[in-house]
Each structure stands twice: as C-alpha cells, then as structure tokens.
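Quick one, tokens below:
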C-alpha cells in the first residue's frame, strides 16, 4: 500500500510540474505567439524524445494546431492553391 501511495504522489507531482512549466511558458511568451507555439512544440518534442507521458494540455495544443492547419489549407485551396503553397 505504501508503494502505491508513493507512486500516486510521484504522478501527482509530475503533473503539477507539467502544468507549472506550461504556466511559465505562457508567462514568458505572449499566448498564441510564434514564440509560445515554438516553446510548446519544444516541450512536446522533449517529452516524446524522453518517452514521457503527454498531459491533456499537450494533446489539446496538438489538436488545436492540427485543426488550424486543416482550416488554413482548406481556405488556401478555395483560393486556387491546391497544395496550399503554389498553384503549380
């Protein structure tokens, strides 16, 4: 039982540290800015490289970025840029 309690304490501490890091990124860079986005990408890359678990905030960031990219690509396509880059 003691081991389970210690594991739960560690998981809770790790999650708290994750959210503190995200808060610090938000304080350092303007929310939504290119610098903020890059800091979030760097954080996620580091976590994946270290085989660390992503938290809900990480997954939400990824989902939002993918959604934005899909929307931009669809808009560019309606403007005659089928690949989103050039008409060629």
């Amino acid at each position: 039982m003691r081991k389970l309690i210690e594991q739960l304490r560690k998981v809770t501490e790790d999650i708290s540290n994750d959210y503190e890091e995200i808060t610090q990124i938000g304080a350092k860079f303007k929310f939504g800015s290119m610098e903020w986005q890059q800091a979030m990408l760097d954080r996620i890359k580091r976590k994946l490289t270290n085989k660390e678990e992503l938290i809900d905030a990480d997954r939400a960031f990824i989902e939002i970025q993918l959604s934005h990219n899909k929307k931009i690509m669809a808009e560019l396509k309606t403007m005659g840029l089928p690949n989103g880059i050039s008409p060629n």
